[in-house]
Amino acid sequence: MEPRILIRKDPVRWGILSTANIGVRAVAPAIRASSNGKLIAVGSRDKNHATEAYSFAPNVRIYDSYDAIIEDPEIEAVYIPLPNSLHAEWSIRALQAGKHVLCEKPMAITREEGEEMVQVARDSGVLLMEAFMYRFHPQIVWALEQIRAGVIGPVRLVRSSFSFDIRTRSENIRLQPDLAGGSLMDVGCYPINLFRAIYERSPRSVAARVHVTGPVSVDLATNAVLDYGDGCFGILDSSFGLPSRQGAEIIGEAGMITLPVPFTPGNYDMTAFITKDGQMQEQSFSGVDQYQLEVEHFAQCIRSHQDPQLSLSETLENLATIEAIYEAAGLDWPII
Predict the structure, then answer these.
(1) pLDDT tens-digit profile of 282-304?
(2) pLDDT at 56 over 70
(3) Do residues 41 and 60 touch, judged by C-beta distance below 8 A?
(4) Which domains does the chain have, with CATH numbers?
């Protein structure tokens, strides 16, 4: 008889590394609003700034270092929204300390880094998940369900775009090569993740071009065609020099699903479209906080001793795809 696993009901106790905007504005409020989590502490190298940034959470402890979060025995899970170049280092430190880690995307700079993180998580007996919050939004869940059910027939083409303009913000971490910036790493990884979720495999080959200009040695724009075999393709474009825009078209042999705002819909009502037999139908979704759904899922996995929905094998395959795109475009990677 297998031993019975007792499932705790108390909230998972969270810590956050840094005062990154996404943590302050999105994930911290999501944890505080979650049904199964509690934000305990924030670690920052600037305690005064952190105290001001987290003034909306007066009961949260503010530490003056990242190490203090990792060393706090009360904290069970750590959210890491640091610059890309620091993801592996601090995730590994937290994992080795026995903390579960939710790490911002992309989880690492290279597949090799990612593999090291995965091995440390397994050796430490804790959970590690890449923070692609959009995968928990009902519109994405619905779209993948339609695809699995064959509603639009076998998918042969997925087109997806994500861009915004930061050309005048040279200090932005997304433009810093030593922090592993670049449009593909920041917004282009979303289409890559979506392609993998739809086709459930890695591309066989990649053709790509990147645009790099001036003193910035990261890609300001990336365009790529990914061949998934059997006549299945993914086409992506990412940019830091175009207006704010995003979208996805999922085209099957019998129909098409259109997601006008697939990645960052905010807490607004959303409408997706399915076109089949010459007719277009709308599918409406009430506004939700996809960050809250993400942290609740991760906390549930911690308490139930289950693997997260976003598998680490999927994450590693996507990291390899990012590298393949840069290689195909002739951009040395990693830059740092």
Answers:
(1) 999 999 999 999 999 999 999 99
(2) yes
(3) yes
(4) 12-132 (3.40.50.720), 134-290+307-329 (3.30.360.10)
